[in-house]
Structures are given as C-alpha cells and as structure tokens.
Amino acid sequence: MLKDLGLKEFIAQTASNEPVPGGGSIAALSGGISASLAEMVANLTIGKKKYVEVEEEMKTVAAKLEKLRYEFLDMIDEDANSFDLVMQAFKLPKETDEDKAIRTQKIQEGLKVAALSPLEIARKSFEMMELCETVVDKGNSNAVTDGMVASMMARTSVLSAILNVRINLSSIKDEDFVMKISKEIDELEKEAMAKEEKIINSVEL
Questions:
Q1: Three-state SS for 10?
Q2: Within a domain: residue 111?
Q3: Quick check: bond before 21 cis, omega within 30?
Q4: Among 5, 23, 106, 151, which residue's CB has the most CB atoms within a 10 Å radius?
Q5: Residue 115 domain flag
Q6: Residue 61 covered by a domain
Q7: CB-CB contact of 171 with 109 (8 Å)
C-alpha cells in the first residue's frame, strides 16, 4: 500500500510515469501532514502550567487530530484505488453494442467513485481547519507558526482535493450528480480560503 512506503520511496513513485499516487493521494497526504503538525501543537500544550486551563480541550483536540491523521493515511490508498477503478473500466471490451453499453456504465460508475473519494478528503480537511484554528488560538504560543502551517496545509488539502473532484465531474453525464457536488465544492473552496485567512490574520509575528 502507498501509505506504507517510506518517504523517499513514496516521493520517487509519485515522480515516476505511473499514474498513482496522483493529485488526490497528495491531497490526502497534505491533510495527514496538517493533522500531525496541529496534533504536535496540541501535545506541546498539554502538561504545561501556563496552559492548564485549556489542557482538557487540547487533549480532546489531539485525539481528534490523531484520528484524522490515520484517516488521511487510509485515503491516500483509497484515492489511488478509485482511480484504478476507472482505468479498469476503460479496459473493458467494446466489440458489441452491449459491450459498449456495459463499458460506458462502468466508466460512469467509476468516475463517480473517483469524484467522491477526493470530496471526502476535502470535507475532512475543512473540518480539520477548525481544530487548527483552536491550536493557533489557544495552544502553546512557542509553536504558533506550526499551527499556522498546519492551517495552510489543510487549506491546500481542501483545494487540491477539489481540483480532483472537478476533473472527474467534467466527464460525468449525470447532471443532477454533477450539480449537487459542484455546489458543495464551490462552497467548500470559499469557506476554506476564508478560514485560512482568518487564522493567519489572527496572529501577529
């Protein structure tokens, strides 16, 4: 699995002429990095006398971020697998009209899965931005820039995942599906950018 590769091997495979890991997997990786960095800030806050009033909140935040960290790792492979589903559909026979109809149906089904996979990455990354904001606002001030970087990585995860949703939507024929998902990602994009700006502007360095 991709998530089990070492860092050098993962980067080398990304750079190769293989289609996976691609942008969706990298979006998930960005989310995982964001979660781990924000979790670090929370952990650097726990146990410090100066932050005793927020210790329980930080423990809760750290636990949520740990869960998200593992979920993003799983989504690295889930996104790659969803792309493989589309590729397998394109390899189906197209000799007869029945073959062509089945192939088209499978391609369309695969494209929906391939769109929903990065959508889930975008949703979770935006959800995580609230946790990033908490560690920036209430966490150990010595690590505030780490929290800010976590926020930026979360925003990057949202926006890069959305790009992968959009490219799949462009080939999907189900207009209701496309309209519904397009509306959601447009809103996610605006909210993620606004949230990042709010977090970054809340800190004076």
A1: helix
A2: yes
A3: yes
A4: 151
A5: yes
A6: yes
A7: no
Closest to 41 in 3D by CA, of 147, 155, 126: 147
* CB-side neighbour CA atoms (13 Å) of 138: 20
Q: How far apart are CA 116 and CA 105, in angstroms?
A: 17
Closest CA to 110 of 93, 96, 89, 127: 89
In a domain, 12, yes or no: no
Three-state secondary structure string covering 21-82: CCHHHHHHHHHHHHHHHHHHHHHHHCCCHHHHHHHHHHHHHHHHHHHHHHHHHHHHHHHHHH
Q: Please give the span between the terminal C-alpha atoms of the chain, in angstroms, as a whole number.
A: 41
Give the total number of structural domains in the chain.
Answer: 1
Q: pLDDT, tens digit, for every residue of 116-169?
A: 999 999 999 999 999 999 999 999 999 999 999 999 999 999 999 999 999 999
Task: Tell the residue number behind the tokens 């492979």, with chain if given.
Answer: 77
| pTM (predicted TM-score) | 0.94
